[in-house]
Amino acid sequence: MSAPLYNAEILRLTTAIPHDRRLSDPMASVERRSPICGSRVTVDVNLDADGRVAEVGMLVRACALGQASSALLANHVIGRTPDELAAARDRLTEWLATGEGSAPDWPGLGVFAPALPHTARHPSIRLAFEAAAQAAQAAQHAAAGTMR
Fold it and tell me: Above 80 in pLDDT, residue 35?
């Protein structure tokens, strides 16, 4: 028997999304939307002098899977580099697309294993990681532009 798509851990994560307020003056901000269900996640990012995420703000208007993914991202995003976020996004995308191997090396992503056969749900799971990676890269480019 397969595990339920909306399990207790996913539902718990929907009630505990950290950094759930937008930043007042972010270095970069990106909104991603799932065309299938209309879920939206906006991520604001500020980087520190070492190019790591120092602050993050989020506006999450998503289904339970999108909310849970946003919570997992937000729980572990501080201190990550843009390259680390891009790698996490790419590994998550690959895992969802192929369904092969173990969950990506980001705490908690294994909770989405029951969603692997439900390809229509994958865009919602990827939203927060896509927005965070894009925002961090944009913040990195903005910071590089101010140092010239």
Answer: yes
Burial class (CB in 10 A: 0-12, 13-18, 19+), 49: exposed
- How many residues can be counted in the chain? 148
Alpha carbon distance 118, 29 (integer Å): 29
Share of the chain above pLDDT 90, in %: 86
The string of DSSP letters for 17-68 reads -SS-S--SS-SEEEEEE-TTT--EEEEEEEE-TTSSEEEEEEEEE--HHHHH
Q: Are 133 and 86 in contact (CB under 8 A)?
A: yes
Tokens for 77, please give them: 């995003």
Give the pLDDT confidence of 60-73 residue by residue, as tens digits: 999 999 999 999 99
Q: Identify the burial level of 70 via C-beta atoms within 10 angstroms of its C-beta, where 0-12 means exposed, 13-18 middle and 19 or more buried.
A: buried
Return the pLDDT at 147: 53
Please provide residue 119's backbone torsions phi and psi, each rounded to the nearest 5 degrees: -60, -25
* Among 98, 93, 101, residue whose Cα is nearest residue 133: 93
pTM of this prediction? 0.93
